[in-house]
């Protein structure tokens, strides 16, 4: 049995089978740090197995929710089911389709919720971004408050004030560097489109002491700040984070945000989810019309010219 490739974006995996009268198996694919595999059985009846890899690697799921779909050559939906597991230890699931396909078709599995108990007692949950995890552990022994000793700039946010160093801000952002070199008269800068909490997360990122949870919580506001102040590495992290959990409920909002903040990677990811993976066919006509009504005209034209 030859293994065939699976396409993955965010929490969605799609596997194209050729419709032959024989069993087929996908290559392993990774979502949220776990390896998975899809297997198609043709006899005695058509069925699909979703399994954790390797098979002996059973996981204890505190909660797992996923949607499995089978679509035909014209993206018509032939089969759809929701799987939900709560507080169980399992390694595979079987789904009986009860129909035969004469041409190729696509099996999709989209994970909506995922929480496992790890051997050390910790919980593994979405998000699972390695880049965020790296940032969370970077300089973890340093005290952020200690870093702000001898700070020389005040940041006035929408609901308070914070202290920072011009040198750190200038090194991280050409916009701040220009501001401090040419424009700033006082020792206070105004960032009124951020709260103190979200601005503090921005500072923690610039000082190398941010946590994954802080970035996840404020990632949309941080994407706007990264675009405004030209902080390239922060923009990359925020785009990748926002791509991690796109789904049918939020993809249009993410697309608008990508357009607003000139986030090309996020925009391309949303287009890929909607068009290449065909998920626009699983979004209601009303939601599509609402997007078209609110979206920038150029964005709407760009998306639907790709259909």
Would you write up a description of this structure?
- The chain has about 300 residues and is α+β, with helices and mostly antiparallel strands.
- It contains 11 helices and 15 strands.
- The strands form 3 sheets. Strands 1, 4, 5, 6, 7 and 10 form a 6-stranded mixed sheet that branches. Strands 2, 3, 8, 9, 11 and 12 form a 6-stranded antiparallel sheet that branches. A 3-stranded mixed sheet has the order 14-13-15.
- The chain starts with a strand and ends with a helix.
Topology:
Layout: E1 3-4, E2 7-9, E3 12-17, E4 24-26, E5 29-31, E6 34-41, E7 47-52, E8 59-71, E9 77-90, E10 92-96, E11 105-117, E12 123-125, H1 130-137, H2 144-147, E13 153-156, E14 161-164, H3 166-172, H4 174-183, E15 188-190, H5 196-207, H6 212-228, H7 232-244, H8 251-260, H9 264-276, H10 285-294, H11 297-304
Parallel strand pairs: 1-4, 13-15
Antiparallel strand pairs: 2-3, 3-11, 4-6, 5-6, 6-7, 7-10, 8-9, 8-11, 11-12, 13-14
Helix pairs in contact: 1-6, 3-4, 5-6, 6-7, 7-9, 8-9
Largest sheet: 6 strands, mixed
- Taking all residues together, what is the mean pLDDT? 86
Return the string of H and E elements. EEEEEEEEEEEEHHEEHHEHHHHHHH
Number of separate helices? 11
* Unreliable residue stretches: 127-133, 135-142
- Tell me the strand percentage band: 25-35%
Shape: elongated
Cα Rg: 23 Å
How many DSSP-defined strands? 15
Distance between the termini: 35 Å
Structural class: alpha+beta
Helix content: 25-40%
Protein name: BTB domain-containing protein
Pathway: Protein modification; protein ubiquitination
């Amino acid at each position: 049995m030859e293994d065939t490739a699976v396409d993955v974006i965010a929490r969605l995996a799609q596997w194209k089978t050729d419709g032959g009268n024989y069993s087929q198996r996908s290559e392993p694919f990774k979502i949220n740090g776990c390896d998975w595999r899809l297997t198609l059985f043709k006899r005695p009846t058509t069925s699909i197995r979703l399994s954790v890899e390797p098979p002996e690697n059973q996981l204890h799921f505190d909660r797992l929710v996923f949607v499995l779909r089978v679509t035909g050559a014209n993206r018509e939906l032939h089969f759809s089911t929701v799987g939900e597991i709560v507080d169980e230890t399992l390694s595979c699931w079987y789904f009986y389709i009860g129909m035969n396909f004469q041409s190729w078709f696509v099996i999709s599995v989209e994970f909506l919720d995922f929480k496992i108990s790890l051997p050390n007692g910790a919980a593994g949950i979405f998000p699972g971004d390695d880049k965020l995890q790296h940032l969370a552990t970077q300089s973890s022994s340093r005290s952020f408050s200690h870093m702000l000793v001898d700070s020389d700039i005040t940041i006035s946010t929408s609901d308070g004030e914070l202290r920072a160093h011009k040198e750190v801000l200038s090194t991280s952002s050409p916009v701040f560097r220009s501001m401090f070199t040419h424009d700033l008269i006082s020792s206070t800068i105004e960032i009124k489109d951020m709260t103190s909490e979200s601005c503090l997360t921005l500072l923690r990122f610039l000082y190398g002491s941010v946590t994954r949870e802080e970035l996840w919580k404020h990632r949309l506001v941080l994407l706007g700040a990264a675009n405004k102040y030209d902080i390239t590495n922060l923009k990359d992290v925020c785009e990748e984070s926002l791509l991690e959990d796109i789904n049918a409920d939020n993809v249009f909002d993410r697309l608008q945000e990508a357009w607003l903040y000139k986030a090309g990677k996020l925009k391309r990811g949303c287009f890929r989810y909607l068009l290449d993976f065909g998920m626009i066919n699983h979004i209601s006509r009303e939601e599509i019309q609402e997007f078209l009504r609110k979206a920038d005209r150029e964005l709407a034209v760009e998306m639907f010219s790709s259909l």
